[in-house]
């Protein structure tokens, strides 16, 4: 049995791709004879408030499925105020330092990045010739922040770039969720050991059974974070509803604005369903004709995990985000692609969707593609060999 520590900002009972990704990694390593410990903040995402069951605690330790989980204090906030958000990240970093001082740290450590400052704190204090530091990079910060408009190329941005480089330099192995991430890392440190570790799902899915009704509008669904990066509010405003009815599941910063838009413009064929559990969501998603995966702007290095999850469910996808995700949709014939940020092209693509591409035979083909190409356990076996 080998000990391994995973340091992450997100973990269940929080929802979303980030927490699911780390949970499945921890569970998978545990099944491969690792003694897994997870260090994470008290649950607070996405609302920026510590969950009721954990309030008033400085540290909460539990064992779940033979995984030891230490949840540490932080100042929870999802405020738009940059200083408050910075303090929230620093508060978790301070808790991590306290944890490192009073606990024995295993010889192998996986550190989730971003957040960049949390990863920096972990790499800085845990780098050692006797310890293997593994950096799991899911998005390229600060570059992604620059492309989203959250940063400008000023002193702060240059400082974050130096922190990013420090993290890469002192990591013994870097895991990246996309080839673009690994290319970026190797452009800075050509000899750095890297491993492509995509966010493949780990769940059993029933065979799809939907039969599309040609007499009605196509039912398009989005499920996930209603944040600025996804651009769902703008999508609602720009869609041509002649052929499509738009269903939305999720929560986030744009939720209230989306609900207000629906209320003020009942002529728009939009139905908001709120937020439901992942298991319940899977049961709902298979009832729709196709799903849309949008990004407001193309983000270098980003590959939405929804691609792999929806393929496992056998759901045709309309990808609207550019980059490597677009390449995967085309390569594996998982659906359609519209030019990033071009809403005219998006509406044209929707208007040309053929019913034959939505029916049962094609859905089973998509699901078979996922089983052959996006297998979590096969990927995990390869990862275990390199860590």
From TrEMBL:
The keyword 4Fe-4S does not apply. The chain crosses the membrane at residues 83-103. It holds the Pfam family Glyco_trans_1_4. Residues 17-185 form the Glycosyltransferase subfamily 4-like N-terminal domain. GO terms for molecular function: hexosyltransferase activity. The keyword NAD does not apply. Keywords: Membrane, Transferase, Transmembrane, Transmembrane helix. PANTHER family: SULFOQUINOVOSYL TRANSFERASE SQD2 (PTHR45947:SF3). This is Glycosyltransferase involved in cell wall bisynthesis. It comes from Algibacter luteus. The lineage of its organism: Bacteria, Pseudomonadati, Bacteroidota, Flavobacteriia, Flavobacteriales.
């Amino acid at each position: 049995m080998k000990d391994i520590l995973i340091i992450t900002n997100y973990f269940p009972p929080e929802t979303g791709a980030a927490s699911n990704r780390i949970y499945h990694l921890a569970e998978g390593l545990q099944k491969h004879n690792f003694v897994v410990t997870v260090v994470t903040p008290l649950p607070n995402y996405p609302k920026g408030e510590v969950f009721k069951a954990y309030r008033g605690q400085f540290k909460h330790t539990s064992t779940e499925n033979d995984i030891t989980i230490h949840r540490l204090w932080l100042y929870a906030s999802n405020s738009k105020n940059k200083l408050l958000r910075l303090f929230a990240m620093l508060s978790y970093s301070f808790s991590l330092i306290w944890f490192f001082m009073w606990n024995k740290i295993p010889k192998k450590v996986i550190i989730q990045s971003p957040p960049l400052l949390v990863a920096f704190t972990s790499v800085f204090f845990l780098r050692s010739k006797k310890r293997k530091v593994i950096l799991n990079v899911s998005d390229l910060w600060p570059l992604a922040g620059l492309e989203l408009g959250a940063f400008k190329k000023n002193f702060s941005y240059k400082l974050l770039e130096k922190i990013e480089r420090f993290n890469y330099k002192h990591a013994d192995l870097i895991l990246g969720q996309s080839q673009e991430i690994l290319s970026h890392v190797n452009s800075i440190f050509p000899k750095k050991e890297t491993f492509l570790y995509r966010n493949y799902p780990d769940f059993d899915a029933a065979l799809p059974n939907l039969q599309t009704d040609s007499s009605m509008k196509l039912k398009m669904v989005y499920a996930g974070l209603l944040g600025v990066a996804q651009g769902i509010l703008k999508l609602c405003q720009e869609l041509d509803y002649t052929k499509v009815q738009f269903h939305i599941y999720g929560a986030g910063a744009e939720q209230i604005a989306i609900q207000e838009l629906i209320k003020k413009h009942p002529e728009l064929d939009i139905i908001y369903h709120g937020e439901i559990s992942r298991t319940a969501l899977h049961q709902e998603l298979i009832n729709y004709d196709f799903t849309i995966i949008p990004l407001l702007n193309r983000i270098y290095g980003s590959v939405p995990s929804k691609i792999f999850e929806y393929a496992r469910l056998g759901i045709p996808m309309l990808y609207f985000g550019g980059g490597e995700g677009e390449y995967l949709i085309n390569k594996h014939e998982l659906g359609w692609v519209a030019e990033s940020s071009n809403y005219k092209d998006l509406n044209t693509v929707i208007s040309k969707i053929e019913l034959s591409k939505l029916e049962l035979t094609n859905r089973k083909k998509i699901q078979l593609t996922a089983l052959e190409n996006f297998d979590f356990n096969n990927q995990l076996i390869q990862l275990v060999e390199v860590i």
